[in-house]
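User: Hey, my collaborator sent me this sequence without any context and asked if I could get a structure. I don't really work with proteins. Can you help?
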Amino acid sequence: MAGKHDIPDDVLIGEILAPGTPEEQSQREKRVRRKFWATAKKAARAVPFMDEVVAGYFCALDSKTPARVRATLFAALAYFVLPLDVIPDFLLGIGFGDDLAVLMAAIGAVRGHITDAHRLAARKALADHDLDAPGEGEKPVVDV
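Assistant: No problem. I've predicted the 3D structure and written it out in structure-token form, which is a compact way to encode the shape of the chain:
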């Protein structure tokens, strides 16, 4: 499916996930640290793989994660926490659709670096933050 202005989705996602300069990487990390949990709470029922998104968050925060992997994850997570992107997140039912595509691409690219420890931290954080992600067999709000 082509995005705005008939630019293929993979080109847009590639631009979003580009590592950027050290300054851009630093700004992304700060934005993600500041806004992640508020956005995650809003998106929990719309993102069918929220557990992997949160595991990716912990992977990005992990100093043992390779720099290029952290840069990819912070780029995707920074896009996720922006309220106004290609499809504004406040449009219920479809607002997180573009975020899902970016997150899936990033997580797919770095999946081997997301460890069991990151996933365990994600499960604990989801419970601690009382995020209501879709359960087994439940249909997410956004059907991708």
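In plain terms: The chain has a mean pLDDT of 79. You can pass these tokens on to your collaborator as they are.
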